[in-house]
Design goal:
The protein has 14 helices and 14 strands. By secondary structure, the protein is an alpha/beta fold. About 4% of the residues have low confidence.
């Protein structure tokens, strides 16, 4: 009998791809084409919301259940929608602890939202690509205006009400050139938990019949990357510069997800899905109840079913989802198989595997050269760091030791 997946993450998109911004690099706006006008109007209805909350709690074997709210832009649903979500969570939790994570572009946040988040202990993620020039370059309104000032106003509301927040920063062809400027800006903004995501989107040299330029993740024909995509080696240099500064000056006081997950992998703990051996434990729920294999694979062929017709547990543990998760491991490139840092990378996200590998197959990760550059740089340092952490030395003491290490002392 096949083992059941004990725990999994599900990104809920109750507003679907509906958003009040039109970021140049957004890969999700096009998902509106999956749902012609009138199917769900970008809003999850009450019955689907209740089904989701009840089934998600029931399907998790752990005593702590995480709800991840994303979009599109979830604030477009209004506070009453999330007040009802919290009510249903309390009704169905049956003694389990509920955590809520809310990812937003921040421009609609105000005191009412902040008070709600504080009252119900939401952890809020703010999408912020750096200072005004960096953020406004690609993150724009539908009218083409920058959004930085509105985001900072929303962030100020969170800080007034002492809401716990972190920042998600998309690294693109522009801000990849200024790692420390971006990092110090986020610190000044109050971010003590930072996550950096490198950007690459492919554009077909032969658009399809519908005029689409962004192409599906498993496309292996001729393609070029969008102009805002991060050069692979530049991504590696960005991480290295940031890492060297962080470990000497901010280790223990600022948490950078990219480095934390590599440290976790060295101790045998599970990391984020991008660098896990297999995938399949991070699914997506659309506004009408459709469940897809992954946030980056919301395409018809990766639809698992709908929670209004199937149980969530059956979809998570379906043969299709199991095969999807194993495909990552089974489709490693020839370059990955002989790589000395494979255990910390595992070939990266399958969406990014489209370069030609050494054997001529188009399954090498676009970011491979950058990740290799970074991991070969940081792993020797991390192996010096881990014994200090095991000794439970104060963070300030560890930073001093690491400074001496860099100075050759």
């Amino acid at each position: 009998m096949k083992a059941q997946r004990q725990n999994f993450q599900l990104i809920a998109k109750p507003s679907g791809s509906l958003c009040n911004l039109h970021c140049d690099y957004c890969f999700y706006l096009e998902k509106a084409q999956l749902y012609p006008q009138g199917q769900h109007h970008g809003k999850m209805n009450g019955a689907t919301l209740e089904n989701f909350i009840r089934q998600h709690i029931d399907a998790q074997q752990a005593d702590v259940v995480d709800f991840i709210w994303q979009g599109g832009e979830p604030t477009l649903l209004g506070l009453d929608f999330f007040r009802e979500a919290v009510r249903l969570q309390q009704h169905y939790r049956h003694g389990k602890t509920i955590n809520n994570f809310f990812q937003t572009n921040g421009i609609r946040l105000n005191d009412a939202w902040a008070l709600f988040f504080k009252t119900h202990r939401f952890l809020v993620g703010i999408s912020l690509d750096g200072d005004k020039a960096s953020h406004d370059l690609y993150r724009k309104t539908r009218a083409g205006d920058g959004t930085f000032d509105a985001v900072m106003t929303g962030l100020a509301a969170l800080k007034r009400h002492h809401v716990e927040f972190n920042t998600l920063t998309v690294i693109n062809a522009d801000n990849v050139k200024k790692p420390l400027e971006i990092y110090h800006f986020l610190k000044r903004a109050g971010s003590r938990y930072q996550q950096y995501i490198p950007l690459v989107e492919r554009q077909s040299t032969q658009p399809d019949a519908d005029g689409m330029t962004l192409i599906q993740p498993d496309f292996s024909g001729q393609c070029r990357v969008a102009p805002w995509s991060t050069p692979a080696k530049a991504w590696g240099r960005f991480l290295n510069t940031l890492f060297d500064h962080w470990i000497q000056h901010d280790f223990g006081s600022v948490f950078v997800m990219n480095f934390e997950q590599t440290l976790a992998s060295l101790t045998g703990l599970p990391g984020i899905c991008v660098h896990s051996e297999t995938c399949g434990g991070n699914l997506v729920l659309e506004a009408n109840g459709d469940v897809y294999a992954c946030d980056h694979f919301v395409w018809p062929e990766y639809k698992l079913g709908n929670i209004n017709q199937n149980t969530l547990a059956s979809l998570v543990n379906s043969e299709n989802q199991e095969a999807f998760g194993q495909r990552k491991l089974n489709n490693l490139s020839a370059d990955c198989l002989k790589c000395s840092v494979r255990a910390q990378c595992h070939g990266g996200c399958p969406k990014h595997r489209f370069l030609l590998a050494g054997d001529g197959r188009a399954n090498k990760n676009y970011f491979c050269d950058g990740l290799s550059l970074h991991l070969h740089h940081c792993l020797p340092v991390m192996r010096e760091l881990l014994p200090l952490m095991h000794q439970q030395l104060p963070a300030q003491r560890i930073r001093k030791i690491m400074k001496k290490y860099y100075q050759g002392g």
